[in-house]
Amino acid sequence: MRQSPLVVVAHRLPIDDSVAPDGACEWRRSPGGLVSALHPLLRDTPATWVGWAGGTGPAPHLPDVDGVRMHSVPLTGDELRDHYEGFANATLWPLYHDAVEHPEYHRRWWEAYQRVNQRFAEAAAEVAEPGGLVWVQDYHLQLVPGLLRELRPDLRIGFFLHVPFPPPELFMQLPRRAELLRGMLGADLVGFQRAQAAHNFAQLAAKVLQLPATDRRIAVGDRVVRIGAFPVSIDTAEMSALAARPEVVDRADRLRQDLGGPEHVILSVDRMDYTKGIEQRLKAYRELLASGDVKVRDTVLIQVAVPSRERVARYQILRDRVEHQVGRINGEFGRVGEPAIHYLTQPFDRAELAALYRIADVMAVTPLRDGMNLVAKEYVAARVDDTGALLLSEFAGAAAELPQAYLVNPHDLEGLKQELLRALRATPEDVAARMRAMRDHLRHNDIHAWAGSYLSALEESGSLLGRRVTAG
Ligand code: ADP
Ligand code: G6P
């Protein structure tokens, strides 16, 4: 087995095994923040990505993709149901997102969670070079750092949580809270999107495990685990360059013509997820159409909502409700050839997304809770001429970094309507001043800065141990 100095461990591999008729694989760039964040980073580094290739049964052998080795971990149908759809996406996901949907607890799901985490830890132990660095990602794999440390104490281990980490009042609901915390504390560095999350984690380590903890460090036996906020970002330069490409500019012009040359285009791009606030946003839009503040004649709403986690009941219910709502609004307010909402559920390539960002006068990103929200950052990066208004939920991690956006509380329907109107009616000067400031921030705080700051903190956290263990 070939070994690598850098190993990323994430639930999913970032490739699409169905893309290439000639058998070659391509980066999948699946709709999801984790893959979007890590793709630009790994392209430039010799690394192995450990993850699930989709499907059940034996793990397929996959070719390298853009120089990155793909190491697939097999899952059975039961594990997929109980680990991914169950504990990860029906227990942890809703709980970590403010319990906006009720988290479910089942003992069988926890058993599968442990088993799958063990398998991922064993796979990482196999492919990491002696003294190498293993970077474990997200809520599906919270036990991996601890399990991996037992197998390979020579490794430097990082863990990064892409989603919010909840306040103690919520986390304390988890029947297996102590084990989950101990698992994460197997890492040398535990990274979060926001400082508040690191604070929550430190409080819980003290409360549940009685460990000495500050918002920067937690003492675990003879080890010191560093914790901190590392807000994830995007490849800003890449998105800006893509949006400025002549073919993308032409495509955007054509899209605007196809829409009938409206005065305003509002765009939303989400995975179909109940955390994204799609229903609330559509309701606000419906009321603005009903009151006549917005008219189908001159304003177009494009809602892209790519289906996600489709076997999980809540996601099926959400999709049905959204589609019912869209149908109703179009029936009530659309005109022949002029739907009130253009509703699209297809995955798009990066160029098409960039063209959509280019035509959006207002980008409405209004999740009820979101770890970061990379769509908001991609939109800003794509607005190369400093035009365009970003309507952004206060409850997205991105709001902490982009305070110049038109900020909203998506639970406050009246506030949401007013701020959307404000963004639609803003003067070009106001819009440009805000956009310039946000673009400036993202130029300096891009994905490379994120990886650089995380990895250098991981190096430092190693030296805090005061000892180097060599592989035996
Ligand atoms: P989440 O991680 O919850 O899915 P983010 O906004 O952080 O939310 O990340 C979503 C990522 O998925 C972004 O990079 C976005 O460009 C991509 N994406 C969203 N919808 C689509 C789509 N329809 N086609 C292709 N990519 C998409
Ligand atoms: C979020 C999570 C990721 C996940 C992505 C897509 O970004 O933080 O871990 O991969 O959503 O969800 P999916 O269930 O399709 O992997």
From TrEMBL:
InterPro entries: Glyco_trans_20 (IPR001830)
Superkingdom, natural source: Bacteria
CDD domains in UniProt: GT20_TPS
SUPFAM superfamilies per UniProt: UDP-Glycosyltransferase/glycogen phosphorylase
Similarity-based family: Belongs to the glycosyltransferase 20 family.
Protein name as catalogued: Trehalose-6-phosphate synthase
Lineage: Bacteria, Bacillati, Actinomycetota, Actinomycetes, Micromonosporales
